[in-house]
Amino acid sequence: MRKQTWFGCVTCVGAVVLGYVAAFLPTSVWRLATIVLSGGEPGSFYTIRTPSTYFSLEWVLYLALPCFIRGAVAGSFAALLTQCAYKGPRLDLAAFVAGCVFSGTYVFGALLSYRMHGVSFDLVLGVVEAGALWAGLLLVAKSFSVPVLTPQQARLD
Questions:
Q1: More confident residue, 67 or 36
Q2: For labelling alongside 98, which of 27, 42, 49, 89 has CA 20 to 30 A away?
Q3: Would you list the domain boundaries of the chain?
């Protein structure tokens, strides 16, 4: 059973959830360090909505980078955990399916959010996190994946 592709896909989807739990610590450490070094939590993101606050360095350091860290750690952790549990040759396919499940869930939620609230920077943060999840999943999965040989390549003539 551990070599079947469906088992790898289910394992990777479950491991992404555990990866988000594991990503809580580095994200919290980053936010705490940002608050300590900057002298407080930036409040301008929630009260003033001007273009200068949207693209400020504070926004990138305090909101966008933790989302990127959370997605990358969750994806990498999921690929590593799946590699330990799944002994089949298609780890990259399992990572791709898990990325599609979580990206599809995000797109559905983003469409509902857009329909109810309009454009917000939470949509941008979600795209950053989803992109980092894909990067973490596929980069680690590609580093562990075993190439699949066709029957012509496997022949020893």
A1: 67
A2: 27
A3: 5-145
Q: How far apart are CA 131 and CA 135, in angstroms?
A: 6
pTM as predicted: 0.77
Task: Quick: pLDDT tens for 65-92.
Answer: 899 999 999 999 999 998 888 887 778 8
| Residue 47 amino acid letter | T
How open is the CA angle 6-76-12, to the nearest 5 degrees?
15
The one-letter amino acid at 132: A
Q: What does the DSSP assignment read for the chain?
A: -TT-HHHHHHHHHHHHHHHHHHTHHHHHHHHHHHHHHHTS---HHHH---HHHHT-HHHIIIIIHHHHHHHHHHHHHHHHHHHHH--SS-HHHHHHHHHHHHHHHHHHHHHHHHHHH-S-HHHHHHHHHHHHHHHHHHHHHHHHPPPPPPHHHH---
Tokens of 19: 């990866």
Cβ-count burial 61-93 (b if 16+ within 10 Å, e if not): bbbebbbbbbbbbbbbbbbbbbbebbebebbbb
